Amino acid sequence: MQNIIETRGLEKTFGSNGTAVHALRGIDLTVARGEFVALVGPSGSGKSTLMAIIGCLDSPTGGTYALDGVSVERLSGAALARTRNEKIGFVFQSYNLLPKASIVRNVELPLLYAGLGRKERRRRALELLEKVGIPEKANVLPAVLSGGQRQRVAIARALANTPALLLADEPTGALDSKTGEEVLGLFKELHRQGNTVVLVTHDPHIAALAERKVELRDGLVVTPEQQAA
Amino acid sequence: MLSGAFRERLFEAWVEIRENLGRSSLQAIGVILGVASVLGGFSISDSQRRRADERWMKLGGMDRLMVQQATAVKDGTPTALQNANLGLRNEDALEGGGLDTKSLDGVSQQKRVRARVRSAHADQDRPVTGIDGDYLPLNGYGVEKGRAFSAEELSEGRAVALLGAEAAATFFPTGDPVGQTIRVGDVPVTVVGIFGEKIFRWRDNQGNQFAWRNRVICLPASLVARRMNGDKWQRVDTVSFRIRDLSVMEKFSEGLGALLRGNHRQQEDFRMDDIAKRVRKRQSQGDVYNIIFMLSGILSLIGGGMVNVNIQMATLKDRVREVGVKMAIGASGREIFKGFMTEALLVTGLGSAVGLLGGVLFSKFITSFLEIPLFMKPASFAWAFFLATAFGFVFALYPAWKASRLSPMEALRYE
Lengths: 229, 415
Known about the structure:
- By secondary structure, chain A is α/β, with parallel strands linked by helices.
- Chain A has helices spanning 47-54, 77-87, 103-113, 118-131, 147-159, 177-192, 204-207, 224-228, and strands spanning 3-14, 21-32, 36-40, 62-67, 70-71, 88-91, 165-169, 197-201, 212-217, 220-222.
- Chain A is globular and about 50 Å long.
- Chain B has a 6-stranded mixed beta barrel.
- In chain B, a hairpin with a 4-residue loop joins β2 (104-118) and β3 (123-133).
- The model of chain B has no long low-confidence stretch (mean pLDDT 86).
- The A-B interface holds A 52, 55, 57-58, 77-78, 81-82, 84-86, 90, 92, 96-98, 100-101, 109-110, 112-115, 117-118, 157-158, 160-161 and B 4-5, 8, 12, 15-16, 19, 321-322, 324-335, 407-409, 412.
């Protein structure tokens, strides 16, 4: 099976020599297609930085990273934007919907950047809203939706271009436990349908839902032996 | 048909503007003022010029070349040669008329004299004009009552007269002046026709600027020369030529100048006055006003542009996160740049539309205040719009560039 994520000795250093902060110190991480991985670690462990690099929002300062078989660590800003558009679906803790655009338009946006025609976009967006269970809210603004509904919209948006990787950053962090459960259920369902999911969280209960847990500490992946210790 | 991506950007820009109406209006103010000032300024000066042109057309058109007597010596004592020069004469008109018969559309001469004019009702000292050739059409006169002079009356110097409307009313307050007799100096002349009344006002409440034209008393030039103020050289005061095609005017006036200098023993004792040239010169003075209006418009556009940059930079802070989200779901820096540019240009476009409307109202107000008819050229609209768009574009570049250069990760984390 082909690996969706494959990093070797991934490093990220912020700042210059004197005040340099080594956020990542050589991460080797492999996520296979169809896996459901939870990325856990305390704050300051480097998991946000790793997520940003995995999500092609940032470039590493060292090491290699292949996303879906394509090496991306040297790509230009425009190429990274295209990669994010085609291969990655983001789900954020704070939903990050555009407040002035209708729900359906929010979902359409990645399709627009991908260059799809208007009718096709609309058709696909409505299909996705159906899939996440809120087809009737297509033409309202995000502000009128509940948190859980907003996160469903965000998931629909993340799925728009059938990405190779679904990257969720504390997706239930802003939800009450009941809606959180529902959203996590949706992730599990998506995983069951064959999507690759990487979920960043600090909550061990949520991490327990994943097939595999990758723990980060001080910019390094904690090995199973260390975990046992 | 608009491309899909552009239409989407336009829609998004429109939503952004609609949602931030106050801010967008502020941004548009500079554009509105600039456009209104350029359009208004141009239109007011165009209306003024159009009015001036109308006046010349009523005076018999701009396509005339007038030759007048002038002194050959500006200062000092004239030489014997200068003393002996013969002045502007009948033969100048005749020879000049034969110079280029193809492009020439009329020749006239005038011989002026002051005389005591008497009728049964009035007795006044008046300027009297001896006319010849195509004087009436060349000076925009039309006979309203009676008839014009016949060729025979002109060549033989018969004792006939044409009166302006005011002159007719003064000398014959009652009854029909046509067929009556007036005495001009010692000569009894028969009135054969009356000119239509000439009226021209710069503004509606002004007096008639053409009142003097209603006071004219015209006699055949040959009669004036023979009986009132003649000499053996048959001198005249003004010779006018009409050349319909302004492009050959230059060539004709050169040829005429050479001919006249030859006739006048190489003395420049005449002055050639090309009406079209004079009007053009006056219009070029009007250009100065246009430049001033344009400059004030540009200053307002620059001021507005600065305000726009400031507002855009300030609002960019509120929109960093939005930019980050768009980038995260696949918008390139270029896409962000285009989005911001579209928004700024849409503000400029809408501002321009309002500004054009403002300019029309402004010009209407000023011209109605000046009481001249409003005349607007499409070119003025184009200029105003072009300037606004050009400045809008330039000032939109920096904020848009700044937004497009945001790092997606930092933009997403921005609080």
